[in-house]
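Anyone? Bumping this.
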Amino acid sequence: DKMLTIKNLHVKLEEEDKAILKGVDLVIKPGEVHAIMGPNGSGKSTTSYVLAGRDGYEVTDGEVEFEGENLLEMEPEERAAAGVFLAFQYPVEIPGVGNLTFLRTALNAQRKSRGEEELSAADFLKLVRARAASLKIDAEMLKRPVNVGFSGGEKKRNEILQMAMLEPKLCILDETDSGLDVDAMKLVAEGVNALRSPERSFLVITHYQRLLDHIKPDVVHIMANGRIVKSGGPELALEVENNGYGDLLAGV
Ligand code: ADP
Ligand code: MG
Ligand code: MG
């Protein structure tokens, strides 16, 4: 049983003839946590964008299957409805839109596209309060406009709450290059760990090993120059932490 299968994925920018992904192979089973590490510019974020269906990229070869369906043929909204969730790279600020409204709209859009009934206001409130409490998120944050004036840590926490509400099957987390401070990182890790389950998988993209001190991955992949060049257990992340990418990428 596989959740996500990426086979020989080649991607270039739509605007120019620049190959970015050059044959990515990756299989994620239900319940597994995979981490992708790698030097800046190696194609980690591009991988996450292509999985989420962001504009601007053209798949020139290869396949992506999500629960037996061709993911690449699905619209971004269909992917979200199917259970693919991309978090973190650039959390948007939405002035004027309260967090509760945003969450309810997102949740009901998802339910609608799955052919499910919308939640009543009361049921939604009950659910969001319970989820927030279980993630130790202050109910006060629910009333504020989405991400406006949030600290870095609050934005992360908010994304974790979105994730908890939408109950995705595959959560893709793409940490920004600048990384997180230690407290924000712990929050993210606690949130992810709370949401881990035998049916839910995670693809955690990070430039640093630190996050993986708190989220224990089943498999670690090293990406370089548009390909996954090495895969292993958590020890691979430690190797990067101690020795950098030099030795791992020598001869690749
Ligand atoms: P990573 O996340 O591993 O740092 P990215 O996926 O962001 O790597 O980028 C991979 C390569 O593709 C880099 O060389 C980057 O400059 C290039 N790239 C990605 N997106 C764009 C874009 N929209 N326009 C120009 N170059 C891009
Ligand atoms: Mg980058
Ligand atoms: Mg990146």
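Late reply, but here is one note on the structure posted above: The chain has one domain: 4-249.
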